[in-house]
Amino acid sequence: MGLRLKFNLVLLAVFVVGLGATGYLSYELLHRNARDEVLRNAGVMMEAALSMRGYTVGHVRPLLPADPDKFLPESVPAFAATEIMTLLRKKYPDYAYKEAALNPTNPRNRAVEWETDIVNSFRTDPGLGEISGMRDTPTGRSLYLARPFQIKDQACLACHTTWEMAPPAMVKIYGPANGFGWKLNEVIGAQIVSVPMGLPIRNANRAFVTFISSLALVFAAVFVILNIMLTQLIVEPITELSAAAEQISKGQVNIAELPAKGKDEVAQLGQAFNRMRRSLEKAMSLIDKG
C-alpha cells in the first residue's frame, strides 16, 4: 500500500467521521432553529391580532352608529382579528389562527378537544404565559403556539355578563346560550396559531442539504490540494530517493545528485543521501586504487 493511498484513506476516514458528527449536530441545530423561527412568526401573528383588536375597540367601534336594533359583528374585536388573520392566511396558508374559547359568542370560536385542554391549562395556572408543542393531525404533525386570552377590560362584560344585559340585536344573531357568564380577569380562551411541521422541516432540510453540500465541496477542494502538495513535496522526492537507493544497492554509485533544496525534512533527507552517496563513491574509489 503506497504512501499516497494510506494518506487518502486516513483523510477519507477523518472526513467521514467529521462529516457525520457535523451533520448530526447541524441537523439538530437547524431543525431546532427552524422550529423557533416558526414560533417567532406565530408570535408576530398573535401580536398583529391583538393590535387589530385594540384598533377595533379604539377606532372602529366609536365610529359605528349606536343602534340597539342592529348589531354589527365588525364591532367585535375577536371578529375583526379573526377576519384579518383569515385574509392573511390567503398569502400564508400554512399558518392557521384561532381565538379558541370555552364559551364563545360566535360558535366558530368554540374550542375543540385539544384546544380545550390548552385553555384549561391556562385557567389552572394563571402565571402560564405561553404553551407550545406538537400534535398529530390527519395530515401529519402540527406545531402550535398558544397564549391565554383574559378579560381585562370591564367594558367587555357589558355584552357577556348575562343575555338580558347584552344588546338584543347580538342575542338575536347568536342566541342567549353562548358567550355569557364571563368574569373580570377570567381566562376565557386562548390565541392559538398552528403550523404543519412540514413547513419547518422543509426549511431545515433545505438548509441542511445546502450546508452539507458546501462542506463536501470544500472537502473535495482540500482533498485535491492536499494530494497535489503530497505528490510534489513528499511522494515524488521520496520516489526519486528510492530509485537512487535502488541503483546504489546494485553498485551504480556514479549517479546524479538528487535535488535537495530547502530546509524541510524531505530536503534534509535528500542532502543526507547525497552526502552518503559521495562518501560511498570515495570509499569505492579508494578501494579500487588499493
Give a description of the structure.
With 290 residues, the protein is of the alpha+beta class. The chain has 2 domains: 3-10 and 217-289, no CATH class; 12-205, no CATH class. The protein contains 6 helices and 4 strands, in the order ααβαββαβαα. Strands 1-4-3-2 form a 4-stranded antiparallel sheet. Strand 2 and strand 3 (140-150) form a beta hairpin. Helix 1 runs antiparallel to helix 2 (77-89), helix 1 (3-60) runs antiparallel to helix 5 and helix 5 (198-249) packs parallel to helix 6 (265-289). The longest helix has 58 residues, at 3-60. The radius of gyration is 39 Å and the shape is rod-shaped. The two termini are 44 Å apart. The mean pLDDT is 82.
Features:
290 residues; alpha+beta; 2 domains; 58% helix
What is the topology?
Elements: H1 3-60, H2 77-89, E1 96-101, H3 113-124, E2 131-137, E3 140-150, H4 168-174, E4 187-196, H5 198-249, H6 265-289
Antiparallel strand pairs: 1-4, 2-3, 3-4
Helix pairs in contact: 1-2, 1-5, 5-6
